[in-house]
Amino acid sequence: AVELPIKFTPQYPGRYPCQILLQSSYDIRVYLIECVVNTDSTEAELEFVTPAYQAVIQDLPISNMSNQDWKLQAILEGHCFYGPPLIYVGPGETTQYPLMFKPIAECVTLGKLILQNETDGTEHIFGLKGIGRKPLALDHIVIDCQVRQITQKVLMVPNYTKNKLTYKEKPDLEEGLGLPRLPAVEYPEELEEPGSNPGQREPDTEWDLELELPAAEYPDELEGPEGPTRETW
């Protein structure tokens, strides 16, 4: 056996197919060689900035200049990042990969997206940084009510986490919102009336109303708060 040294010096990541033809007076041999080159560094650094509970989506274009169908598997690292687990790109086509960042609190989180091409073995790597700002108001509510009449309004409070949450209501109105007042208590003349009626509250009195929310439940194939998305870390 005789060794045949081959030197390959790629300049860019990608798939490089080639042929080597060995020919003599008595024999002809053809060797098919395919080299796959991946990069160790990220192709791009992406930064997402959005208020808590608000989603922002960035479409990442993946172009297939080969003659084969591509199947790419997505590996997501980092909290609050979501995207489909697989995408398919046809020959000569460009497909958008929708990457979503939806924080559930004020935070700064780092992550990484790796798109592994199962057809030719190449990888697309993206560095991720997500910044969750102070959340916006969930809604603008107008309550039409009559003087001296109790008006009730049901507020839907979402829980996007997988844990039970406890909220405390702290109204900044003089009359307050939340727990209704108890009726005033009448005392006989021979009984001394307490300093304040149990059912009355002074305007500057502070009180809290605790609200417990159950954890959000998602099907096994869904990891994110919206749509068929997946998050891994």
Automatic annotation (TrEMBL):
Q: Which GO terms describe its cellular component?
A: cilium
Q: Where is this region: Disordered?
A: 176-233
Q: Which domain of life is it from?
A: Eukaryota
GO BP annotations of the record are: sperm axoneme assembly
PANTHER family (alphabetical): CILIA- AND FLAGELLA-ASSOCIATED PROTEIN 47
What protein does this entry describe?
A: Uncharacterized protein
Q: Which organism is it from?
A: Chelonia mydas (Green sea-turtle)
The upper taxonomy is: Eukaryota, Metazoa, Chordata, Craniata, Vertebrata
